[in-house]
Structures are given as structure tokens and as C-alpha cells.
Amino acid sequence: MNKAGHKIAGVALSLALLGGALSACGGNENNEEARPSASPTTSASSESSASPSESPAAEPPAKLSIFNRVNAGIVLDDNPVVAEAERLANVELSIEAPPINNYVDKLQVLMASGDLPDLVYNWGGADSNMETWAKNGLLEPLDDVIAQYPNLMSNITKEMWDGVKSVVDGKTYLIPRPNVVNHWGYMINQQWLDKLGLAAPTTLDEFTNVCKAFTENDPDGNGKADTYCVSFSNPTLGNNSIWNATNFLASAFSLPIVNGAKDTDGTYKIREKMSGYIPYLTYLKKLNDEKLVDPEFLVNKIYVDQDKLNQNRVGIIYSHQYGVMANLAKDKESDLKYTYHGVLKDANGVASDWVTPAMWGGWMIPKSSKNKEAALKFLDWGNTAEANALFQIGVKGETYDSYDPATKLISRTPEQAAKLATLSSTYMTVANAIGGSPSLIENADTPERVAKFQEQFDAAMKQMTVVNVPAVRAPLILNLNNSIPDLVKEKDSMEVKFIMGSITEEQFKKFLNDKWFPATADAEAEYAAYMNEQGQ
Q: Smaller CB count within 10 Å for the chain: N or C?
């Protein structure tokens, strides 16, 4: 391996795409005392306080090499955050960090080279690449050893471990990188609600009423008909924003937008066969027909909906629980203008919050590594609150003045915040969350903002019913975009045409019956069998 000479002190760096903002677990506060560091930490002060005859010999730092994605703004040399991590974890690391935009290509080259480091971050998690590398004998199976590491076992849930097992031989070749738990609801312009004498909607009927008022009743008071109720964005997931940004609305139709959840009759089906599928698309058509939805909602790129919200062009966008505070980076008065709410209730009065295992890729240990135990110890330390806080908020005096882990309230100057952006980030965490929660509520830098966040989050969680959805490891259903790409695109196009009114419901259903259902029958059968075998 070509080590670039960067000495990364204690950082098994990994990347999580958080859309520029942290999002946290519902009600899972960090319990730092319950997760003490399991690494052999020896501080300089403790060594100097004991006499030579009383002090045992310090264990030398473990030398580990890492291949990982690191965001370009981070300066790795002489970095006080990584130096502190080295001290706490008692490691000495060298890292090769290709640019983010070609990391996957560089990773492929690395794995084919035969010259492998001690730890490799795979952004795709337990994907087809991991399966290939495991099949070729490049990766160490970890099932017999992971139970020895208490922080890995406490912070990584059973659902996460199940979600990374090889579909070929059932073994574990990847240690998940826990991420924050997103509870995707919506963010709404509270000032518009107050002006029109309305409350944030919790049902479909209420949502429709708010939509009409936001569009027709001049909520911004400029005397122009230039506002819409809602907009969506199109994250870079390869399919249209009907599914990427509307789960808060699809919940009103008992329609999960993720694989792994049952239909209303208690069976597993592909989404297009679920009872709420056609009614949901029909409702989107109604919003479009009545000009209540942003007319560009099908072509908006990622974050464009957020920009339109801040420009007073729309009143509602989808959002996780951190959206209001995260939006402060774009709108300095977000906490005064907007509020966060959970998903809508269905016809039975249930607001189903479907939550998948929160992980973003994971760590692989090559068979060729001579430092497997040290690598596992380091990952174990990385799954502690101590490590998580270090990478997310930095070093006291350098990147902040004070921090309360109980409230997550931090005091830091703008200069300290700017410095942190060059020293660390959420990309640099070994585990990006402890118990589903990060160390920091981004931008909640006053007691009042912390209280507002908690009040809105608590209210949303009280309204919703969390449904934990397991990770689906059924290859055919996961590989439809690659196995039938043209048909997937045609299906997406037909959905759009139906919503826009260029085809009828009968024409759309004919396409599904004649083309889509026959082409996906094997995938659906495998998926249902897999889920039933899991006993879910």
C-alpha cells in the first residue's frame, strides 16, 4: 500500500453523507458512563504521577494503516484532534485518503493490488463489492471475535449486524459504522400557520386544508399569488423524488417507501402492489391538478426545496428532526420561522415512522493484516461517546470552550467553529452516533435553541409509532436498477406521467400488469421469502 505519510492519530476515519447536517436518534441520549473506553489508554499525567517502581510499563502504541474517505477541507498533518485520538486510543496510524469523488475507483484498485492496509472503509457497506472480496479470500471473517469487544456489541444493534452478513455464506466481514437515526417528517413555515390561524397538520385532510391556504390565501402577505404549499427535492439516489422525499405524506396511505415493511394485510410485497400505492400517486396528482404543489417538484435537485422554503415560495418540505436547526446555516432565523413535525396519520390514526438500521458503510479487516486485534480494539474505542465527541466537536480550547454532554449544549466562537472544519467533521467519526445519537445538535448553540429542538422532537415522537424495519438482504429486489434498468426508468416515467395527467389510471395499471409485475415476480418472491425467514 502506498502510504502518503499522513500520521492520523487514532482516526479510523469514515464518511457519512448527512446532507450537511447532523440528525439524531429519537430519545436516545448518550450515556457516556455506560460505554467506557475499552482501549488501553495511558496518559502522560498518570505516568508522571507514579514512581518508576510502581508504574507498569506502558503498552506501546499499535501501528495501524487505514484506507478511508476524508473530506477535502480536513488538514491531516499536525492535527490536534487526531493527535488527541492517538493518545486516547493508544495508536499510531498512517492513512491513505483518496479524494471523495473517486474514492470508490481507488478502493477497487487497492483491493486488486494485494497490498492492503489494516482497515478499509467500504462506503457501500455489505454490497456486491464486499461479497466479491470476501469470496476471493481478501477479508477476515469476524463472527468468532466481535463478541469480545463490548462497545461494538453495545453500540451496533442486532439489526445492523444482521444487515451486513454475507448473503453468500452468512458470515460477517464488515463492522457497521453506526449512524444517527433519522425520523423523517416535515418542516413547515410556522409564521404562515400563525397568520392564517392554522395548526400544523397531522392528518391528510388537515394537510390538504393547509395546502389550499398556503397556496390561495397569500400567507407571505405580498399581495401576489406566488406561493405553493409543498415542494420536494431529488436526492442523488437515481430515482425520482416521488419516493425520495415524501415519506411524511406517504405514511397517510400506510405506504412505506422502504423495503422491509409489511402491507396493511400483513404480507410482504413490492411497493407497486401495496394497497396505498395507487391512492398515494392519485393524491399527488390531485395536488398537481389543483396547483397546490411546486410545479417543479419532479425536477428539483437536492436542497432546492429547502432554498424555496427559505425564499417564501413554499411552506412545507420534508425534514428530519434536525432540519430546523440545520437550516440556520442558510436562514439565520430558522428557529423563529419554522417548526419540525412527524409523519401524517393514516386512516386508522396511526403515524408510522419506518426506521431502517442506521448505518453508513462499514469497516473491513483484510486477511493479510498483521494487526487484526489492534484494529478491532481501535474500532471498539471508536464506538464510545468519548471518541464520538472528540471527532464531532474537537478539542477543548481549540475548537470549543465548553460542552455539556447531557444537554449537548456547546459554547464556541465563530473562529473555533471555522477551525473545527479544518480539523474534523462527521466524516471522521469511527462511529457517527452512540445509541443512535450524535454528540452535538448542530447550530443549537443557546439554551433556548436546545429547548426548542427538544420540544418539537418530543412532540413528534409522541405522535408517531416507530416501526423498526430490518435491512433487506435479498439480492434480486436490491438489484433491480442493474438487472432491469430500462424497465425501472420506464416505470418511474409512467408514475410521473400518471401524476401529470398524461396517462390515465387504467393505462398506468395496464403497464404494471403487463410489464412491471411479470418482470419483478422472482424478485418479489425472493424478497418475501427472505423476510419471512427472518421471522419479521
A: C
